[in-house]
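Data card: per-record layout.
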Amino acid sequence: MSVYVVRPDDSVYSVNRQVALVGFAMRGEDVQLFDASDIDDIPISDTDIVFGGVKIVHRAFARLGLTVPAIDSIPQCLSQFARRETWQSPIGDIRRKVQNGEAIFIKPVASQLKLFPGQALRSFSDLLATAHLSDDTLVECAAVTRFVSEFRTFVLHGEVIGVRHYGGDPL
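The structure for this 171-residue chain is written out next.
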């Protein structure tokens, strides 16, 4: 197995990239850096790991003939901990609700990750980030919630292997 990690372009520092580089190297894996523009040229197989942004990983899946798995916003097994309802709705319906004074958090559905940044919509000006979307574009929705702290948890084969602070108060 080889691990291909996209080379930093110095525009964004990524703690996750650094942790992947060090962690896989410490495990004794063959770690190779590559430039994002070279994703179609690296010799990947279905036993390799490609670490990079969503577009890079999706391209690696396509090269291997794999379907990109849909990732639930909140997996069913964790929904009891969410303490909020999530639903999908056409953005046109959400625009009307926001114009009528309702606040709603939206993000792209799993099949269109990175279509736009997830955000709370509270006023007409907040809708500008979605102006390029047709009214029938489906989005994930939730009530606007104030998070004190946010963490990412990494699970491998049902075992928690890491927890990383993501935003808010780390304590």
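Known properties of this structure: The chain has a mean pLDDT of 89. The two ends are 37 Å apart (CA to CA).

See the next section for split statistics.
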